[in-house]
Design a protein that fits this description.
Layout lengths: L6 H49 L3
Length: about 60
């Protein structure tokens, strides 16, 4: 037996690690998308309110 793990053992370990990486990246990516959407929504509301105030002569 060799001291080093076989390619099959490394591939099996890497597949589990890859699954964890994919899951974490999906969670972080979802959070970032959520923040971007929220900020865009707040900016649109701010612009709409500014436009509405200017149309009233303020």
């Amino acid at each position: 037996m060799s001291r080093y793990p076989s390619f099959a053992e490394l591939a099996e370990f890497d597949m589990g690690l890859a699954a964890v990486v994919v899951f974490v990246s999906l969670v972080v990516g979802g959070a970032i998308v959520s923040i971007v959407i929220e900020q865009a929504w707040l900016a649109l509301r701010r612009l709409w309110k500014l436009r509405k105030d200017r149309s009233n002569g303020r």
